[in-house]
Amino acid sequence: ETGVTQSPTHLIKTRGQQVTLRCSSQSGHNTVSWYQQALGQGPQFIFQYYREEENGRGNFPPRFSGLQFPNYSSELNVNALELDDSALYLCAGTSGRAGDEQYFGPGTRLTVT
Amino acid sequence: GENVEQHPSTLSVQEGDSAVIKCTYSDSASNYFPWYKQELGKRPQLIIDIRSNVGEKKDQRIAVTLNKTAKHFSLHITETQPEDSAVYFCAASKGGGSTLGRLYFGRGTQLTVWP
Which secondary-structure segment (H or E) carries B21? Predict the structure, then answer.
């Protein structure tokens, strides 16, 4: 549909653990953004990567980190998980050339117990 | 940073009626305003967007209006159908250049269309 895929679909972790979420975007999506969507809320901007470098960050602590790779895939890493990290994590790709349109992946549902 | 307010939080309409969702934004530098539809358990889907150089945009049964002076924009859905039932999010972005892609979302509107 959008050319953006995410894995895994669901994940359960224990407080204090670390997690890595993955996103694969179609060719041409040189910008990837990550969002956290808590239940009943709108997505909140975590950070953005452009050409493999972090290009802006929202109001999230340093234990949220990321990587972007040359093949248009990216990762979101969260260390020292807290209960409040339970949410749907969305990545979105945009090529920039077509404008600002962002296309979301299906998301990863993270539950921290 | 940008602050986007969205109203109402819930909206129920009869099939065939119109639905209107309103959003305000705080940063006058914002210039791109997309609307997303999110069905339960699914990804947000872009349904329409508008840029600050345009006052209105229409796509079949949906339309968006933008008032830059008042810093508010609205989504209008006409002839609603049960399949329009979903959560709708407005968002704002400065767009372009180094800030490309940083969307600030409203809290969402749960639209229910009764047959």
Answer: strand B19-25
Contacts of A96 in chain B (CB under 8 A): 100-101
What pLDDT is recorded for position A72? 81
Nearest residue of chain B to residue A54 (CA atoms)? B98
Task: Select from A33, A103, A107 the Cβ nearest to the Cβ of B102.
Answer: A33
Per-residue confidence band for B54, with pLDDT thresholds at 50, 70 and 90: confident
Segments of chain A assigned E as strands: 4-7, 10-13, 19-25, 31-37, 44-50, 53-57, 64-68, 73-78, 87-94, 103-104, 108-112
Q: Which of A77-81, B16-20, B80-84, B101-105 has the lowest mean pLDDT?
A: B101-105
CA distance A21 to A8: 7
Confidence band for B24, pLDDT divided at 50, 70 and 90:
very high
| Angle at A51 (CA atoms; ends A50, A56), nearest 5 degrees | 25
Q: What is the pLDDT of residues A101-111, one digit of tens each?
A: 788 999 999 99
Closest B-chain CA to A98: B96
Q: Do A56 and B45 touch (CB under 8 A)?
A: no
Smallest CA–CA distance from B93 into chain A, residue: A100
